[in-house]
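FORM 7B: Structural annotation worksheet

SECTION A. Query
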Amino acid sequence: MKNCSLRMPSCVMAGTGSVAGLTDIINTVSARHIALFCDKGVAASGLLEAVSRKIPASYDTYLDIPPEPDYLQVESLLGQVEARGTDLIVALGGGSVMDAAKLVSVLLGAEYSIRDLLKDPAQACKKVPTVMIPTTCGTGSEATCNAIVLVPEDGVKVGIVNNAMIPDYVILDADMIRLLPPGIVASTGLDALCHAIECYTGLKANPLSDLYALEAMRLIFPSIERAVKEPEAMDAKENMLLAAFYGGVAITSSGTTAVHALSYPLGGRHHIAHGVSNAMLLAPVMRFNMVACTDRLAQIHDAVFSNDSTLSSHEKAEAVVSRLEAIVRALDIPTLSSFGISADELASLAQAGLDVRRLMVNNPRPMTLDEAIAIYKEAL
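SECTION B. Predicted structure
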């Protein structure tokens, strides 16, 4: 066994209605003043009111958290929280809200700034405990030590990674995603699938990450299309919510690969939603990687679909990649060209993706500039 480690939140509550446990969490940590992070869309859905009723303490609500925030916007949010004070941060939302909450939790009262963390994430130290309540079914931010921010002057997204940002408490309540629009179920659900399959096929994969990555895929493959196309299929949505968490746990022990690396410039330059950009690149990258991880893809086939001894490892790997392609088609994921991206820009995007070395070094197959360009062309 290779050396490996796994970190995860200290307390996870799951199940329909489990958001009621927020009251117990607040009482357990003796929090007197809460910073409740959310966004305007989630607030308008009525979820914010439902959660705020569970808070037996004074609280301030912060709603101006944009999708895919840049580090300057996080700095502004930090200033607002510092002015009002807090001893517990509750994040109700998707990946952007949870990432912002995790960053503020290590920046409140710190001598370092977010700019310092962009250069050296190792200095982060938790200042305020956090509670994560995801309202999508894919980012996995509720489980990870990662926070992604846009650096606008460079047109790139950067991942700040430090174990201090692993949430303290997580509440997985399917009621929080009951009314999630189908398009967001699709994009965030495919993001969760990316996490699971990248962690399982990446060079850093290990027995600890494999456990969570495989279970996430067992839940996602049979559930994602139903969760998108059948709004009342709460069993499928519950599977997706749990799978998203499992995928996040796998990231803390293994890590994502070229799908995420190549998606970062799409978000940084064109503000394409993270889940959408990953979904567009998932099948092309996995088809490129297949020659280097045939056995791992075959293992996914055996665990998720069927252990058919009449099929070769190559045939099983091909079946998994073909299934990915079919899911992306069925869920109507857009193409790069629909965002106004032309072939002339692909070389620049490809180089920016290759420069995300933190992720590219985990990819099972080395990738050249021409190969990265070819992957983008497939997504056009």
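SECTION C. Observations
Residues 182-379 form a domain with the Dehydroquinate synthase-like, alpha domain fold (CATH 1.20.1090.10). The mean pLDDT is 96.

SECTION D. Sign-off
Analyst initials: ____
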